[in-house]
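Cross-check.
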Amino acid sequence: MSSSDKISLRRCGRGYLIAASLCGVFGFTYEQFSHGVYSECMLLFFLIPLLGGALPSFALLSARRAPGRVTRCLWACAMATLSVGCCLSGVFEIYGTVSSLLVFYWVAGGGLTVSGLGHYLLSDIRRSCA
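Predicted model, tokenized:
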């Protein structure tokens, strides 16, 4: 892996750490003003960018090949979709209502995650066969 790829992965990992921090601050602040009503989705909101974004970015620093642009975009869209879905689930739980449309965030986020991972693995197979 080239040094520019490592710099890009470190920058991406730092971005996910900042996003996790902002999600944590937002979740904590929202819980403070929720009048004693709590939501697991809101409490664990920060874990999606932390475990799904920062951890893989820093783990890939030791990989032999960096993910391509399409893979990184699919993965970033997946983490954003899952984060928004988790945040909205928490907001709706605290508000005391339900929405059947929230399931689409989880389905879309899961699909984007599988697509990003699949693209990374398939591009690795294509590259080794060539």
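Residues 25 and 46 are 9 Å apart (CA to CA). The radius of gyration is 17 Å. Passed to J.P. for a second look.
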